[in-house]
Amino acid sequence: MTEATSVVLYLAPGSQRSPFHDAFVETLERQGFRHGSGFDLRWVFARGEEDSGKLRQLVDDAVRQNQPRVIVTASTPLTDAAKAAAPDTPIVMTIAGSPVHTGLVSDVKQPGGNVTGAMSQSHDLSRKQIEELRKQVPNLAAIAIIWNPNNPAKRIEYDEAVRAARELQVKVLNEADTALKPRLEVRSDGADFADAFRAARDGGATGVLVFGDPLTVRNREAIAAAGHDGPPAIYESSDFVDAGGFMAYGPDRRELYREAAQIVVRVLKGEHPRGIGVHSPRFELRVNDALAAEMRSKGLL
Predict the structure, then answer these.
(1) Domain check: are 155 and 293 in the same one?
(2) Model pTM?
């Protein structure tokens, strides 16, 4: 009798596998789950699609065609779509911004439904980012937020960042100058990232927050290059620093993907997501010392 194959459907927002995906796969393999040996890991790439209706159709089709035992999602919009398409199938998030606030889980310790996984954000992440940026930029009086408003988790993060800046007595350019606000929003891979930084300079910002989401992570090299002329920017992932960006404070993304893989293993062995707590990450700080020295010589620090 042939052993039944466990199908795990991985929904990714980009166009190809990344080092984060590799960390996920390597963890599965260390636990004995290797593709082709009674275990079938199938990939579906959204290729940067941001339209919610098109994402929903993509996920509906993928679920119907693959009939997965577990669905893995790598963005909040994809998790939303998977939850609607497969309300009874276990869903494991590799990364989620604010899963309670976005309605993906009822509680991070006891999710209560068919969704669990790893979350990338603490409630005070934006505040800590501003505080870390201020250590590098002592005259931090105004910041600009460069972000993708199409991501519902980032809308929550935006509100939290504005609130934190207000408490720290730092002006948020997006709120103070409505004419520049649209230039700071990056909604697609074709966005003008250089103009977003020009908008920050035009508005007198002395620092920039760049929110991490699939769109900005995919374009991290272009965004890091656009930020070389300032204002000094802080990112959510150290991968932006590796790409040449100024500094980062946020979760260890590879850890999130490894933890998500561990949760997938637990589900495949019979546990239900309702009782598996959402993993909270450890946070790391990285500074690009070479770029810091260059910005210091230009009077940006």
Answers:
(1) yes
(2) 0.83
